[in-house]
Amino acid sequence: MSKHFSHIDHQNRPQMVDVSDKNQTKRIATAQTTVILPDEVKAALNESEIQSKKGPVFHTAIIAGVMAAKKTHELIPFCHPLGLENCQIEVTTTADKNLTIQCTCEVYGKTGVEMEALTGASVAALTIYDMCKALSHNIIIGETKLLKKSGGKSNFSTP
User: Fold this and answer.
1) Residue 128, number of CB atoms within 10 A of its CB
2) Which residues are catalytic?
3) Do the beta carbons of residue 44 and residue 150 sit within 8 Å?
4) Which helix (H) or strand (E) holds 26?
5) pTM score of the predicted model
């Protein structure tokens, strides 16, 4: 069986994937985004949190990431609307005071939650950028990647 783009029909037109015949299963996906902070922002880190005039940066980023994961179908064409049953975002400070954001989404449904996890991690990173840009515009939102997924036709995990 050869692989093909699932969102293109036999006449090369864009399409939503038909999941009507798929079985419902518990589907879980975890994605990660890295944020590289310049020294000015690292200096503002206090016990793994940054306080800004807009509020606590990490807590706000977590809320924004969850909200974005829930609205992924409104942002990405052809994503199915999902009633996420769980979305957890964790912001951790690395040894060199950069950040790792992980988003794990869960649903019992017919389609996976990879896009929701990727969106949640990405928007959390963008929120950190927005809330810290007054200190420096040299914040780098680095790699965003899927770490693992389970529950569909195939499971995936990065080595």
Assistant:
1) 26
2) 130
3) no
4) strand 25-36
5) 0.91
